[in-house]
Structures are given as structure tokens and as C-alpha cells.
Amino acid sequence: MIDGLSVTLSQAGPLAVDAAFVVPPGQTLALVGPSGAGKTSLLKAIAGLVPATGRVQIGGALWLDERGAVPAWQRRAGLVMQGGGLFPHLDALGNVMIAQAQRDAAAAQALLAAVQIGGAALRRQPAELSGGEQMRVALARALARDPAVLLLDEPFAAVDRPVRRALAALVAQVRAASAVPMIIVTHDLEDAARIADTCAFIVAGTIVEQGPAAAVLGDPASQLNQWAGS
After folding, report:
1. Nearest in space to 11 (alpha carbons), one of 34, 43, 35, 57
2. If the chain, 230 residues long, is cut into consecutive pieces of 10 residues, what is the mean pLDDT of each piece?
3. Residue 65: HSE in the Cβ half-sphere, 13 Å Cα cutoff
4. How many helices (H) and strands (E) are present in the chain, helices listed first?
5. pTM above 0.85, yes or no
6. CB-based contacts of 190, cutoff 8 Å, min separation 6
7. Looking only at Cα atoms, what is the longest distance across the chain?
8. Fewest Cβ atoms nearer than 10 Å: which of 14, 48, 55, 211?
9. Half-sphere exposure of 198 (CA within 13 A, CB side)
């Protein structure tokens, strides 16, 4: 069983970050805020891709504390970057297999089938896939790491509204089928309301408001909704 994610992070630069939150098992936190607020930096710090101080704990595993940091390659973080971040020289199947601890084409195909990628698309390179297909492959690749936490950075930003809704539904299904905690960075409050259990509003590297998504997003006087309406 996967336990929850607990984060208390500080980062000096290039953008100062000061954040603390907990994501229980099987729940999703939407991290919302203006461009340059530190959302992506926070995800990368959790994944171990940028230096930070503080504490990151997933269940009984400490990834960061005062004694040091676990290297990124040893952290079971399934990270989906904006745009997908697929390797352009690999096809869809190869992009998923490269994330596996032991290469298993059948298991990779099963993950891709779960995100509705199959047939001829398995052998297409990223440039031959639509934006929505690329994000589906990126999600399958993240799942191939057997992650203890899923970190999604603007996964719907490059697709149109109908595809956004389909991808959001798919992400919700993935979360429902898994016990892992998930953090999704988004500018879209509709996406946050559709997917998240809790919501955190970050401004200039600091979380200024957080709570149950329905309460935060349903309060017109909240700082988050005032920002979104400006």
C-alpha cells in the first residue's frame, strides 16, 4: 500500500520557494497560480531534479531531509512535463519501455492500451502523434516507473477543449485505479475542480491558500478565484 506524500520545501533560487502540504494516498492536489509562481520548480524539487532544502517523504521513504537528498533516479516519481517531454527518436512503445526497470514490451503495451494508445500508434514517433496522443504516451511512461507519486505539469495545456476534457477524464480514471497521491499543475480552474481533492494557490513561490478543492474553488472571495477573475 502507498502512503501519502508530505512536503515541506524551501528553495533559494532561481525563484524562492516556500511550500508545505500533504497529499493523502489516492488523492490529488491541484497546484494553481500565475506563470512564474514556482509551480514547475516545486514539482522538479519533489522529483529531485533541482536542489532544495526541507523534507519530502512518501510513506516511509525519505527523499529529502536535513541529512541529504535521494538522487532523482532513485525516487519513484512519475513526472509528466508540459508538452510530454517524449524522446523524439523513440516511438511510443520505446518511450514507455525506456522508463521500465526491466524492459517488458507486453507490459508497456498494456500501459499504452490503458491510456488508449494501440495499433499503428505504438510505432509512431512523437512528431507523428497528436498533442493528446503525446500526453497519453507521457502518462503511460510515468506509470511505467511504478511510481509512488504522480507529478503532472500542465498536462492539458497544448490541446483543445474537447481533448482536454477527455484527457482530464483519463487522468481521473488513472488516479481512481491507483493508490498513489498525485499533484497536477494547472492554470485551468475547471480542470482543478474536475480532478482535484484539494487545491493550493501559489504566488511568488509561496502557497498563500489551500484547502478542499470544492471549498476553495467554490468561494468567490478566495484569493484564487479573485486571481482567476482578474
Report:
1. 43
2. 79 76 93 89 91 91 93 92 89 95 93 90 95 90 90 82 77 79 89 89 91 90 82
3. 8
4. 8, 11
5. yes
6. none
7. 51
8. 14
9. 17
